[in-house]
Amino acid sequence: MASHTDIDASELHALLESQNTILIDVRNDDEVARGIIEGAMHMPMAVIPGMGNLLCEHNDTALIFYCHSGIRSAQAAAFIANMARDNVYNLRGGILAWANAGYTFVPKMD
């Protein structure tokens, strides 16, 4: 059984600056309306199962999930990791941890 790796905000920041990543925000529409981490794609939790095959492509690229507090994104990361996807990460503490570490948000672009 494959697993994902939990990372903190500073580890996420370093990953975003050092390598190709796919950053996915699994929060609901009303939550992302308040702002997202720059470069993130919004993919609500409910659509993750249907996107599994697509998300499993490019196994060499880090795939990072986040939500409000890290619970939903951990579920999404576990689901995708169990599809034999490597390089799957979850932002521990979610966007709250990101903000508490002093990192910024950008408006969601449609």
UniProtKB/TrEMBL annotation:
* Alphabetical list of InterPro entries matching this protein: Rhodanese-like_dom, Rhodanese-like_dom_sf
Note the superkingdom of the native organism: Bacteria
Pfam family example for this protein? Rhodanese
Q: Which residues form the Rhodanese domain?
A: 17-107
- Under what name is this protein listed? Rhodanese-like domain-containing protein
Q: What is the lineage of its organism?
A: Bacteria, Pseudomonadati, Pseudomonadota, Betaproteobacteria, Nitrosomonadales
